[in-house]
């Protein structure tokens, strides 16, 4: 484990102290490191406050609206969170089909991109999702009906049951 992962694990250990333990790393990316716990939850330790705040806002909205899936794709449920440095969120672990990683989501207002940027984005999604493009867009469109604009929408974050 590198130094950043060790610091993140210490933060996760402090958060769960006394009621569970950290099992291991289940994901890592530009926004943070995700650990599994002995009670089958995930703890994401964030590298940046804005990523934490975005993702927390989405999970709080989903919690408030009692939403657990979008077009048949599971959305992790919010278990708990801590804003002190480094910030973290505890959530349920989901299995495919799922939609995850809302660290770059925008709420309520769609991003203001020129039409050619939107066209390019759709072309990249068609290439990335292939025959699943229309199913993936159904997930995206369902999220937007709740005011969630997933800005890191790609096959790593949107999985299908048979993958």
Number of helices: 4
Structural class: alpha+beta
> Runs with pLDDT <50, length 5+?
none
CATH class, named: Alpha Beta
* CA(first)-CA(last) distance: 28 Å
Q: Please tell me the CATH architecture by its name.
A: 2-Layer Sandwich
Order of helices and strands: HEEEHEEEEEEHHEE
Say how many strands there are.
Answer: 11
- Average predicted local confidence, pLDDT: 95
CATH superfamily: Phosphorylase Kinase, domain 1
Radius of gyration: 16 Å
Provide the domain count: 1
Topology-level CATH name? Phosphorylase Kinase, domain 1
Beta content: 25-35%
Shape: globular
Order of strands, widest sheet: 1-2-3-7-6
Secondary structure elements and pairings:
Blueprint lengths: L2 H14 L5 E7 L3 E6 L3 E6 L2 H16 L4 E2 L2 E2 L3 E5 L5 E5 L5 E2 L6 E2 L7 H15 L3 H13 L2 E2 L8 E2 L4
Antiparallel strand pairs: 1-2, 2-3, 3-7, 4-5, 6-7, 8-11, 9-10
Structure description:
By secondary structure, this protein is of the alpha+beta class. 36% of the residues lie in helices and 25% in strands. The chain contains 4 helices and 11 strands; from the N terminus they run H-E-E-E-H-E-E-E-E-E-E-H-H-E-E. Strand 2 (32-37) and strand 3 form a beta hairpin. It starts with a helix and ends with a strand. The relative contact order is 0.14. The model has no long low-confidence stretch (mean pLDDT 95).
